[in-house]
Amino acid sequence: MIQFIFKSIGQRIILLFFISIISHAIVHLAPGEPSLVDPSNPRMKAEDIQRIRAAFHLDEPLYIQYVYWMKDLFTADLKSFKDNQPVLKKIWDRFLNS
After folding, report:
1. Taken in order 47, 85, 90, 80, is the CA torsion positive or negative?
2. Which of 38, 68, 92, 97 has the smallest number of Cβ neighbours within 10 A?
3. Which are the contacts of 87, defined by CB distance < 8 A and separation ≥ 6?
4. Distance CA 77, CA 89 (A)
5. Cβ atoms within 10 Å of 52's Cβ, excluding its own
6. Which residues form the ABC transporter type 1 GsiC-like N-terminal domain (predicted)?
7. Rounded to a whole number, what is the distance in angstroms from the first to the last CA of the chain?
């Protein structure tokens, strides 16, 4: 019985790992550049875009971005591209209204 439980937990961890890889890939396969959070903003300069790319590690290779994303996920430190606010707080604020 214990062996079954450990095997089941191991399979779920592997499944979550692959789901996280697919989720990360889907975000990066979406059309558009994540650093251009507001492309219609005329005040957005090239150095602002570079600063956003560096802050969110978008100038790193995809596997390094995945490592940073997983670190932020496990430390609950995911930030919004648009206003750099914690995502969990934004979700919680909207959740309370629904």
Report:
1. positive
2. 97
3. 78, 79, 80
4. 10
5. 19
6. 1-84
7. 42
